[in-house]
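User: Just a sanity check before I run the rest of the batch. Below are the C-alpha cells for the first item. I only need the designed sequence back.
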C-alpha cells in the first residue's frame, strides 16, 4: 500500500507541470475563461515588430482566444514592416481590436495604418493619430517621398479604411495632407469607433459587437475576459535591433574597422572575430530594408581615405574627405521611405549617430591605426637584443674580460667597458651585445 501511494505521488508530481501547461495553453478557452490576447507595439516599427504581430496572431488563433488587442504607442517605422502587419490583421480569423494607449500615446504615421486596419479601432483620452506622409532621408535632410510613393500609400490607407467601413477619404488625407487628430476629432471623422479610458472600459464597450473576420461574422464576448500579454521573443528583439538603420550602420562600421585593425595586427584574432560578427549582423540588418548602393560605395570610399591618411599623412585632408563621404553615405544609405511622425526625434538621433561615427572614425584612424603602423615599422628585436635596457644582478665578478649574469632564467657571459669592475650581486644594466656576450654597466 505504501509503495502504491508513493508511486501515485511521484506520478502526480511528474504530470502536474504538464497539466498546468495544458491549462495555460489549452486549445479552447484558457482555463475555461475567455481570453483576450494582447500585443504591444511600442517605439519604432521594424521587422522585429512585424514578426511579433504575425506570430502573435497565429498563437492567439491556436489558443482559441476571443480576440486580439493590439495596443499602439509608436512614432512610426519601416514601410514594408507596416504593410506586413496590416496584411496580417486584415486576414486574421480572430477579431482584432486596435487601441492607442496609454494617455499621451500616439499612433503616428505607420501607427495610423495599423489603427484603421483593426476590426474595432479605439483611442484613450489625450492620444493622437495621423501624420502619415512618407519621408526619405537625403543629403539635405528629410523630405517628403516621391509622388509615386505618396499616391501608393494614400491609396492603400484609403483601401484599408474602406474595407473596415471607416472614413476612407480622411484616412487618405493622413498620407497626402499629413492630418493629425486627437481622440475626439478621430471619433467625429469616423477613424475610430470609440474612446475608452483603459482596457477594462474598452472590453466592456466592445462586448456584444459583431465584426467580420476572415472566418466570418463573430459576436464579441469580452466583458469579463482575462488578458494575456505576449512578451517579446529573443528572435524578434534581435530583428528589431538589426533592422533599425542606426544600429545597422553602427554594426557595419564596427565590422569594417574590426577587420582592418585585425589584419594590420595579426595574431590576436579578437578584432577579426568581432569585426566578422558585426559585419555579418549588419549585412543581415541592411537586408531587412531597401539600401542605396551608392551610399554603401561612399562608406567604402570613406574607409579607404581614412586608411590612406594613416599610411601617408596629409595633415588631415584625407580624414576630412573621409568624414564627409561617411556622413553622406550613411545618410543616403536607407533607400526605403519611412513612415515616421515629422516631429519624431528619430531623424535627429540618426543624424547625430552618423556624425558621431564619422568623428570616432577620424579619431580611430588618426591614433589607433597610426600607432599600429608605427609599431610595425620599428626594428624587430630578437635574442639578446631584446635584453638591452634590462636590469639584473651579477652572478660573478664582472670586469672588462669576463663575468656572468643571470636573466630570465638563463646564464649569459658578460663584461664591462673602460676597465670597470662590478662585484658579485651588484645591480647591472645591459647596454649592448657582442655575439654571445652582453655588455653591462653598474646600475646606481
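Assistant: Here's the designed sequence for the first item:
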Amino acid at each position: 500500500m505504501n509503495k502504491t501511494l508513493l508511486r501515485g505521488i511521484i506520478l502526480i508530481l511528474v504530470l502536474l507541470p504538464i497539466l498546468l501547461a495544458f491549462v495555460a495553453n489549452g486549445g479552447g478557452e484558457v482555463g475555461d475563461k475567455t481570453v483576450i490576447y494582447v500585443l504591444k507595439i511600442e517605439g519604432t516599427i521594424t521587422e522585429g515588430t512585424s514578426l511579433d504581430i504575425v506570430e502573435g496572431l497565429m498563437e492567439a488563433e491556436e489558443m482559441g482566444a476571443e480576440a486580439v488587442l493590439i495596443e499602439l504607442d509608436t512614432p512610426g517605422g519601416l514601410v514594408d514592416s507596416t504593410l506586413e502587419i496590416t496584411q496580417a490583421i486584415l486576414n486574421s480569423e480572430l477579431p482584432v481590436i486596435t487601441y492607442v494607449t496609454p494617455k499621451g500615446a500616439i499612433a503616428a504615421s505607420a501607427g495610423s495604418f495599423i489603427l484603421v486596419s483593426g476590426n474595432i479601432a479605439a483611442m484613450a483620452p489625450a492620444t493622437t493619430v495621423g501624420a502619415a506622409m512618407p519621408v526619405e532621408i537625403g543629403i539635405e535632410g528629410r523630405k517628403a517621398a516621391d509622388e509615386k510613393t505618396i499616391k501608393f500609400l494614400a491609396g492603400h490607407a484609403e483601401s484599408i479604411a474602406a474595407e473596415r467601413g471607416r472614413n476612407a477619404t480622411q484616412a487618405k488625407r493622413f498620407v497626402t495632407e499629413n492630418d493629425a487628430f486627437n481622440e475626439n476629432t478621430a471619433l467625429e471623422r469616423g477613424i475610430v469607433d470609440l474612446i475608452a479610458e483603459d482596457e477594462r472600459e474598452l472590453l466592456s464597450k466592445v462586448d456584444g459587437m459583431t465584426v467580420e473576420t476572415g472566418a466570418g461574422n463573430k459576436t464579441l464576448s469580452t466583458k469579463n475576459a482575462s488578458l494575456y500579454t505576449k512578451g517579446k521573443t529573443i528572435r524578434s528583439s534581435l530583428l528589431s535591433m538589426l533592422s533599425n538603420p542606426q544600429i545597422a550602420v553602427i554594426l557595419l562600421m564596427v565590422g569594417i574597422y574590426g577587420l582592418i585593425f585585425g589584419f594590420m595586427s595579426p595574431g590576436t584574432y579578437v578584432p577579426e572575430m568581432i569585426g566578422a560578427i558585426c559585419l555579418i549582423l549588419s549585412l543581415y540588418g541592411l537586408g531587412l530594408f531597401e539600401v542605396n548602393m551608392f551610399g554603401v560605395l561612399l562608406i567604402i570610399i570613406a574607409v579607404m581615405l581614412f586608411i590612406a591618411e594613416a599610411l601617408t599623412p596629409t595633415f588631415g585632408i584625407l580624414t576630412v574627405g573621409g568624414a564627409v563621404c561617411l556622413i553622406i553615405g550613411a545618410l543616403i544609405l536607407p533607400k526605403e521611405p519611412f513612415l515616421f511622425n515629422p516631429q519624431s526625434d528619430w531623424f535627429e538621433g540618426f543624424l547625430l549617430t552618423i556624425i558621431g561615427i564619422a568623428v570616432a572614425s577620424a579619431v580611430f584612424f588618426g591614433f589607433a591605426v597610426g600607432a599600429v603602423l608605427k609599431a610595425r615599422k620599428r626594428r624587430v628585436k630578437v635574442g639578446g637584443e631584446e635584453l638591452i635596457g634590462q636590469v639584473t644582478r651579477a652572478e660573478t665578478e664582472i670586469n672588462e674580460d669576463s663575468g656572468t649574469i643571470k636573466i630570465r632564467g638563463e646564464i649569459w657571459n658578460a663584461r664591462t667597458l673602460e676597465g670597470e669592475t662590478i662585484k658579485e650581486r651588484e645591480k647591472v644594466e645591459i647596454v649592448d651585445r657582442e655575439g654571445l656576450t652582453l655588455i653591462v654597466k653598474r646600475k646606481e
